[in-house]
Amino acid sequence: MKPSLTVSFLAGVSLAGPAFAECAPQALAMQGVTIAAAEALPAGEDSPLPHCRVSGQINARTGVDGMPYAIDFELRLPDDWNGRFVHQFNGGNDGEVKPALGPLLSGNAADTALSRGYAVVSSNAGHDGGTFTDFGLAGGARFGFDPAARAAYGYTAVRDLNPVAEALTRDYYGKDIAYSYGIGGSNGGRHAMVAAARYPEMFDGLLVGYPGFNLPRAALQHALDVQAFRSVSDNLSTAFSRDNLTFVAGKVLEACDGLDGLRDGIIADSDACQSAFDPAALTCAAGQNTECLSEAQTAALVTIHAGPKGKDGDALYSDWAWDRGIASGNWRFWKLESPIPPWGNKPIIAVMGASSLAQVFTTPPTDVQGSPEALETFLMDFDIAMEADKIFATTAEFPESAMEVMTPPGVDDPELAEFRDAGGKMLILHGQSDPVFSVRDTQAWYDALDANNGGNAEAFALFYRNPGMPHGAGGPSTDDYDLLSPLVAWVESGAAPGTIVAGVTEGNAEGRAALGDVTRKLCPYPSVARYQGGDETSAESFACE
To answer: Which of 471, 477, 479, 480 is catalytic?
Structure first.
């Protein structure tokens, strides 16, 4: 376990105290912390084992917008504690306290850090999204009008809460924490990468899933997507039918599936695929009107896969991998349509994405209306080439740009020397079909990290790509894997992870339909799982090369 941090910013908060055995608010009292509730929960449907659930709050204040802000948190302390601690980093815009169960980023939802005996903390990252009831669908990102709330969402909530949660844990059990871990996917993966750069001694190990570490840049992609799709149809949901995207996935598979030695529905050699696949193969030939795309549809897909460009044609974010998961329900939900009537059945990027770009990821924030139509219009009207600089802009009221607040320091030239030298370890998993954060961006980040560490980033950070996986576990991919155990073995025993065997959960209907009941190897980048002969359903027939 790394030495405890000195936390001078926690004025008045005691980080030491007597051992507690009682699960009650008065027993957990700590100066500077409001304990709203503490209750002992038996094992049950929503409780994998007996534990004490604590609800609390720190840093209550009134923002410059006159709204109440605080870091609300939940801490779960198992009766049979394994001596370890997990900070659960949540996704989206945060804004609510997700149950502190410690999801482990796989398709097996029952396997959590709490179920393994870890103490787990979760928070709202400094704002309550439900407070902004007068702003419709834009309310979840309205906190962006308060500079301190932006900063809390970006990095200070983790900085301020983690020492408090660890202190409560130590005091409750009357002993030190052996090892501390941070776990999160999407925005939660961003939180983990920010922690590695800003607080290199805070966590012994970080488990990072499909990270939005370049959030403001990725938000520009939302505008590009909507503008490209609307060039095909006035209705996002009809720009591409499900059959259209199934056809696209099939053509990508036709070009790329065998590049790893076996046609099995898995594009393991993604890098080779980007060269092998020609989008022109998607377009209808003269006289053809089925099993093909219109020229406008092909052009839209080429545009979004190239990523947003600046006024000089320079890349503003990243390109994207062609992969079979483009036909997944998750890809469609994010990019084209949702089943949610209050959203006008708009996709996530046109609702949450639009409100976040307007109010959190650009400076100064834009007062956008909260109807589905107004949010989509904001993205349609956003001039990417001319307005992209707003993600780097500052004002007197907002002295830090969105990029400074949201991304890990040194994001374009990462080394993580302090995290490395403190003995920290990091595992990163990203799906090749992620529709929200490009796996190619994470890959480029890792390449830079590796170069800045003399080609030896693998000594403390490993990156895994999962073919077919969209934003989070599921889709036409393997989703049954254990990432925490190899991370723990690396941190605590020095046993560096190698290949990770992954299967398909029974609940992953798309994965079962696409792949069947198979196992495959997830390989440390840049190696690729290549077929060696033998049982085509078994991971043992593949080698990472």
So the answer is: 471
CA dihedral 270, 271, 272, 276 (to 10 degrees): 80
Residue 521 in contact with residue 499, Cβ under 8 Å? Answer: yes
Q: Are 33 and 56 contacting, i.e. CB atoms less than 8 angstroms apart?
A: yes
pLDDT in tens, 171-223: 999 999 999 999 999 999 999 999 999 999 999 999 999 999 999 999 999 99
In this predicted structure, what is the pLDDT of residue 46? 86
Please count the other Cβ atoms lying within 10 Å of the Cβ belonging to residue 523. 22
Catalytic residue among 171, 257, 323, 434: 434
Give the list of residues 6+ apart from residue 56 with CB closer than 8 angstroms, or none: 28, 33, 34, 35, 36, 72, 73, 74, 75, 168
Beta bridge partners of 47: 44
Helix boundaries (H) for 144-269: 147-151, 157-173, 187-198, 215-230, 236-239, 242-256
CB atoms within 10 A of CB 83: 15
pLDDT in tens, 487-512: 999 999 999 999 999 999 999 999 99
Cite the DSSP H helix spans in 342-416.
348, 354-359, 372-381, 384-387, 402-406
Residues 6 or more apart from 289 whose CB is under 8 A from it?
A: none
Annotated active-site residue 87? The verdict is: no
C-alpha span between 180 and 314 (Å, rounded): 40
| Helix H or strand E segment including 205 | strand 205-209
- In contact, 222 and 252? CB cutoff 8 Å: no
Among residues 531, 539, 542, 543, which one has the least CA distance to residue 262? Answer: 531
Which residue in the list 186, 318, 338, 541 is annotated as catalytic? Answer: 186
What number of other Cβ atoms are within 10 A of residue 11's Cβ? 8
pTM (predicted TM-score)? 0.95
CA-CA distance, 117 to 125, in Å (whole number)? Answer: 24
Catalytic site includes residue 186: yes
168: left (phi over 0), alpha (psi -120 to 50) or beta: alpha
The answer to whether residue 434 is catalytic is yes
Among candidate residues 492, 420, 427, 484, the one with its CA nearest the CA of residue 178: 492
pLDDT digit string (tens) for 424-461?
999 999 999 999 999 999 999 999 999 999 999 999 99
pLDDT, mean of residues 349-365: 97
- Check pLDDT > 60 for residue 522: yes
Residue 139 · residue 58 · CB < 8 Å: no
Half-sphere exposure of 476 (CA within 13 A, CB side): 23
